[in-house]
Amino acid sequence: MKTRQDLNKIREENLKQIKLLDDTKYRVVVGMASCGLAANADLTYDAIEKEIKERNLQNITLTSVGCIGECALEPIVEVYDKDNNRYTYCSVNERKAKEIVNKHLEQGEIIYRYLIDNYKLLIDEDGNKYEAPKYQYRIALKNCGIINPTKIDQYIGLDGYKALEKVLFEMTPEEVIDVVTKSGLRGRGGGGFPTGLKWKFTAANKGGQSFVICNADEGDPGAFMDRAVLEGDPHAVIEAMIICGYAISASQGYVYIRAEYPLAVERLQHAIKNAYEYGFLGENILGSNFNFDLEIRLGAGAFVCGEETALIASIEGERGMPRNKPPYPASSGLWGRPTVINNVETFANVAQIILKGADWFKSIGTEKAAGTKVFALGGKIKNTGLLEVPMGTTLREVIYDIGGGLPNNKRFKAVQTGGPSGGILTEAELDTPIDYDNLIAKGSMMGSGGMIVMDEDNCMVDIAKFYLEFTVEESCGKCTPCRDGNLRMLEILNKITAGKGTMQDLEDLRELALMIKDTSLCALGQSAPNPVLSTLDKFYDEYLEHVVNKRCPAGVCRDIAKLVITDHCIGCGKCLRNCPVNAISGHVKQRHIIDLNICVACGTCKPACPVNAIISV
Amino acid sequence: MGKIVITKEKELLLRKKIREHKQKSGPLMPSLHDAQEIFGCIPLEVQKIISEELKISVSKINGVVTFYSRFSLEPKGKHVIGVCLGTACYVKGSQAVLDEICNTLQIKVGETTKDELFSVEATRCVGACGLAPVFTIDGKVYGHATVQSAAKELRRIIDWETGTHEN
């Protein structure tokens, strides 16, 4: 248990270390979240540690941190120096790691060719300093990639648990709710419900046990914002949950987290243990008369449990099925008690809002959507990764300025947002400023933050089918429109992609989609038809090609796709070597040929071709 | 399909864990997670143990077990291969990788080979979208997968299992 004086001391000492205000010469961090570890960042870390030791270098701190955000370039090593410069080295294997220690840390010589080059970072070869990327603004990810997530002291060093102190000793619960309400913070899990109002409604039912739940059941395939926050800065979520507990008079919290994120679970467990030891959790927090306990509950692989009433059922030990609302969890949630459920990213904003005030938060973003949003940018994009931008940033800025555009000179076709609940946005819609309402108006939704870029090689009918397969599998089976309706839609899509569709099928598809949207019980069912509807609206031509001409223009749908090699072929043989069924033949420097009798149209050869000579007819 | 053996030791461990969970509200899910971890699956025999401890009917427990994809009724193979079919991986061709693995092992997704060495799963997003497409073998993530790289890794394990290596 720490006193407030202890905290001030820890804060001062760690801030000095992190900002290199003590005698530290360099601060070296290695990104070791899931992405980094999958790219063997642990080996990189060990190599640096060993090399520093062997060379007997002094005054260098080496720290493992969470997600730095440039997932495609892992392992990433960053070097901070006394002049506040930050050098980001990418794809650092053991050999490069040793070189960085030798040249940069020992001799002070920056190795420019290993530095990140895809967004203008701080310094160039001539020593000119650049502005940091103008679009990114980190609030929820403030500490990710900066602090060691397993060291509570480092979190405290960067104003950690300061908001909690302020709340406990200077504010009433009503004042806390008031600040959060005025800030304009809305739910980041996709719903967009005003967070302050949610707290207010729940607080109105206080008297007896209330609960705070953090929804970390990040199920949207292709999204990993919550994972990054929990792996990189778990205390930000814990602190916010305690603050929420204080505001609504709850003494028990649960984090419901996917079991598929073992590292996030581990770091969160560790962080909760530390928070208890320091007296941020438990009884009489920091000497106040407020008590709050926090527990982890593991999800078990059911997408529908991201829906709040299903999540509550799951914690209670039931099948994760949603129920009708109202009553809303604010009046009758976990075990029938008033409950606040917020998403990870929503919570990650709270401490900053308390510290810096509602007006500060409102000044970022747009009028109807204050603050920032974290996106997981993936698919056919150069700089796959995690980014946080102010609301109102356009899709084009995200995809081209931050994401670096599409690789291999491919043409942009669409971007999918909102996962299985969202829709497709086209080239014409790229200048749309991102916020909750704008994207819904364009037939998609912001969702939890997954953003998947697709190029000309992706078939939109196939993509609709992909999402529907997901929803069909994840439908809990409680209500008929979702359970049976989505299956019928999938059958129709299977027919179309097999080249057996009719014009009547297209009409049926739309009618079914609208019916399911109107009549399903929960958000999963209501939004399941969105990928179908938005592709029908925006890529109707592609559906027609499948139905009328029995042809898949992108060459994806195997039953009807035919791949051929055009005379752009330079005879490099890459396609031949990549073909899993040996359907391609040809001599070096001569045009190759695909044997359509053998070809299974898997499409493996297409991305392998350096000159885009393989097309579907 | 191989049957699992419920040793006294494992049973006692599970009972001990369940009794810990009983101290708190909503003990069923944490108990099931432990059961899955201890036995590798939650067949009827294990459900009966949980039922005894928690005084919840086996029918209800079975209902919960079969609802969640994380829990299984049958044991999995020695090596579990998962190919991510999350969106980021899918648009970058993970289906072809999955097909290749299934072809090589001559099983379908969700099945286990006759020799009980391999199970193949189409997994949900593992959160390593930056490395898409990815597949996992026994929890280790392999990024930037191609049909070739998957085949190579698989071959390595098959060789290891069938080759001269012992243990």
Could you explain how this protein is built, in words?
The complex is a heterodimer of chains A (617) and B (167). Chain A has 617 residues and is an alpha/beta fold. Chain A has 5 domains: 14-114, Glutaredoxin; 152-361, Rossmann fold (3-Layer(aba) Sandwich); 372-455, Ubiquitin-like (UB roll); 460-548, NADH-ubiquinone oxidoreductase 51kDa subunit, iron-sulphur binding domain (de novo design (two linked rop proteins), Up-down Bundle), CATH 1.20.1440.230; 563-616, Alpha-Beta Plaits, CATH 3.30.70. Chain A is built from 24 helices and 17 strands. Chain A has a 5-stranded mixed β-sheet with strand order 10-9-13-11-12, with helices on both faces. Chain A has a 4-stranded mixed β-sheet with strand order 2-1-3-4, with helices on one face. Chain A has a 4-stranded parallel β-sheet with strand order 7-6-5-8, sandwiched between helices. In chain A, strand 9 (372-379) and strand 10 form a beta hairpin. In chain A, helix 3 crosses helix 4 and helix 9 packs across helix 11. The N and C termini of chain A lie far apart (70 Å). Chain B is of the alpha+beta class and 167 residues long. Chain B folds into 2 domains: 8-67; 79-162, Glutaredoxin. Helices cover 49% and strands 11% of the residues of chain B. Chain B is built from 7 helices and 4 strands, in the order ααααβααβββα. Chain B has helices at residues 8-22, 28-39, 44-54, 58-67, 87-91, 94-105, 147-162, and strands at residues 79-84, 118-123, 135-137, 140-142. Chain B has a 4-stranded mixed β-sheet, covered by helices on one side. In chain B, helix 1 (8-22) packs antiparallel against helix 2. The mean pLDDT of chain B is 90. The interface between A and B is large, with 59 and 49 residues.
